[in-house]
Amino acid sequence: DADRLFLVQSGDLLLIDADEPTERAKPGSRGDLLGLNPFLTGTRCTNSAVAINDVRVWMLRRQDFDELLRTLPEFRQRISDFLLGDELHDYFDRRLDMDADVSSRWQTKR
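The chain above was modelled as a monomer; its predicted structure follows.
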């Protein structure tokens, strides 16, 4: 269960797919969110990040995220919209091989 979310402030990194380690690593850089889907859904992480040079990241802990949800209605609404969107459905389907009915039920519960 992912209890932290990371935002890349500066630097470059490679994202390695744990399910396809022989595939070419994808570049990551400033502004990327690392671990977003697992953080929001409680699913397993499917990527690892490796720094190419000095990388600075911001870390958001689960307890702080939960506090933001409680105190900021606009933030809560944007997260809700994301959870109901196509990007997350694709993540369930492609990355986690989750049955479409199961992922739809999961999204409906949110």
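Helices lie at 36-41, 62-71, 73-83, 86-95, 100-109.
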